[in-house]
Amino acid sequence: MPYHESFPQRRGRLLTSTARLTLDPAFLIGPVEPRLFGSFVEHMGRCVYTGIFEPGHPLADADGFRTDVLELTRELGVTLVRYPGGNFVSNYRWEDGVGPVEERPARLDLAWRSLEDNSFGLNEFLAWAARAGIEPMMALNLGTRGVAEALELVEYANYPGGTRLSDLRRAHGVDKPHDIRLWCLGNELDGPWQMGHKTAREYGRLAAETARALRRLDPGVSLVACGSSNSGMPTFGQWEAEVLESAYDLVDYISLHAYYDPADGDVDSFLASGADMEHMIRSIAATADHVGAKLRSRRKIKLSFDEWNVWYQSRFGGEASLEWAEHPRLIENVYDVTDAVVVGSLLITLLRNADRVGVACQAQLANVIAPIMTEPGGPAWRQSIFHPFALTARHARGQVLRVEPECASVSTDKYGEAPAIWATATLGDAGEITLFVVNRDRRGPCELRVALPQGLLPAEHLELADDDLSAVNSAADPGRVAPRPGTGLRMDGRDATLTLPPVSWTMIRFAPQE
Ligand code: AHR
Fold first, then answer.
1. CB pairs under 8 A, 24+ apart, for 493-496?
2. b/e string for 181-206 if b means 16 or more Cβ within 10 A?
3. Please, are residues 221 and 159 in contact by the beta-carbon 8 Å criterion?
């Protein structure tokens, strides 16, 4: 039953709706998996070069890592980073990026028509990751390469020593094995744009054979099979089913990718992206479980949402439109307030499905559709989308609670009716509950009533909203869009009531009374 008895109600020019939700520590979904706060560094545009790595920059350390970007990465709360692609990996030779820099070859990156000088490679990435305090997630080239090259890379990276490749790593100055746990078996191989694109049957077999061999070499690895490149692919669902029929017992995760865009000015559908992401997660979980049932398996395949974000893809002319260049400015989207609210809602979706999604990576980290922007030789700053990520990564702790708001709905052209209020909450060890909530309704504010367990009181209330939804941050004005303290939250017995502005993201921490 919708709660909006008084919806809509005129207040000035805006329509005010009402909604309510209950926070109950008894309704647990599952633990907050730290790997949900992952990011992605691809050799694409300026993500690596002049993004995280810029020798000669005034703030670069002795290894050429930009310390300003390292600090922002830590502040963002990123726990894991996928590397080195993306489409880039499907024609990449990892050997080109190790050993003495002056001996590394320059190559053509066919994915993004870029010249790659290989001055940054595996060992640089792993040194950077250690400095940032994040777990690496490596992608293997199963586009133009196969089982043998995947085995060679894992031997180089993870085997302690005494073999040709592990000793080569040691000769390259890395004595201890990198011990990389998480490996992607290729990238988006269902896509015809991918170097080495395959049918589901071809890829399923290759993924299974690669997984079998890698497990023999290093039984401790966790493996991610490629799912569909997006939910609009003609083979969406069928691809996952066929791949898992070949590789079910050999892999741990199946990947999902989704980018959202206010294409054709359809902002209502764009604001409902979180609901679409949830539909996608549940569809692929059901597909995996269907295969598991047919195979009489008791294993559950988890989901790795290893590329997600807002990307104005409809404004991108495609790879074929690119001129050959060295780390060009590629898809450097500038994000506004609406984009930040959508990113907040996508994070809410990932948490709502924490029982199934074990890994998630926002794509990408720096410059390329990224929360962190840099200028070569110049400053680094936070885009609007930085803020919901950083606050969610910092405060979503403990267990995820099931939260189902009773609220109005918004009609969307792409996804039909979507709930106006999108929410999740986490329960920390000290009994504190943090609520993350989005009002995706453009028509007006929403008066939200939150039923709380006994003894909790509001401790922090932050809000990302703006009268100008197109406001952005820039090098000149890096603080234009930022979360501000929310106002007007009042307690009425055990209920908290507050007003959520139209198109807003809100976080409230409720802490036990002293
Ligand atoms: O993140 C940009 C690109 O989007 C990645 O290279 C690819 O995997 C996806 O299509």
1. 494/451, 494/452, 494/453, 494/454, 495/449, 495/450, 495/451, 495/452, 496/449, 496/450, 496/452, 496/458
2. ebbbbbbbbbbeebbbebebeebbbb
3. no
C-beta of 190 in contact with ligand 1 (< 6 A): no
Q: Which two tokens stand for residue 269?
A: 């559908």
How far apart CA 226 and CA 163 sit, in angstroms, is 30
CB of 243 closer than 8 Å to CB of 314: no
Q: What residue owns the CA closest to ligand 1's atom 6?
A: 86
Q: Strands 504-512, 433-439: parallel, antiparallel or unpaired by DSSP?
A: antiparallel
Are 125 and 84 within 8 A, CB to CB? Answer: yes
- Looking at per-residue confidence, does 175 or 318 come out higher? 175
Q: Is the CB of 364 under 6 A from ligand 1?
A: yes
Residue 8 half-sphere exposure, CB side, CA atoms within 13 Å? 15
| Residue of 187, 304, 365 to test ligand 1 pocket, by largest number of atoms within 8 Å of CB | 187
415: left (phi over 0), alpha (psi -120 to 50) or beta: alpha
Separation of CA 499 and ligand 1 centre (Å): 38
Helix extents (H) in 295-371: 337-352
Active-site annotation, residues: 188, 307
d(CA 110, CA 439): 42
Residue with tokens 């970007």: 69
Amino acid at 372: I
pLDDT digits (tens, 9 = 90+) for 269-316: 999 999 999 999 999 999 999 999 999 999 999 999 999 999 999 888
Closest residue by Cα to residue 286 from 274, 299, 301, 307: 301
CA of 86 to the centre of ligand 1 (A): 5
Tokens standing for residue 299: 């294993």
Which tens digit of pLDDT belongs to each residue from 189-219? 999 999 999 999 999 999 999 999 999 999 9
Token representation of residue 325: 């260049």
Task: Please list the residues that pair with 461 across neighbouring strands.
Answer: 508
Ligand 1 near 351 CB (within 6 A): no
Per-residue pLDDT reduced to its tens digit, 498-509 = 999 999 999 999
**Strand order across the beta sheet in which 14-22 lies:** 9-11, 14-22, 446-451, 495-500, 490-492
- Whether residue 410 contacts residue 418, with contact meaning beta carbons closer than 8 Å, is answered with yes
Closest CA to 358 of 304, 280, 395, 284: 304
Residue type, 321: S
| CA of 26 relative to ligand 1 center, distance in Å | 39
Residue 277: exposure state from Cβ atoms within 10 A (0-12, 13-18, ≥19): buried
Give the number of residues written for the chain. 514
Pairing of strands 253-260, 302-310: parallel
Atom of ligand 1 nearest to the CA of 85: 6
Q: Give me the chain's average pLDDT, please.
A: 96
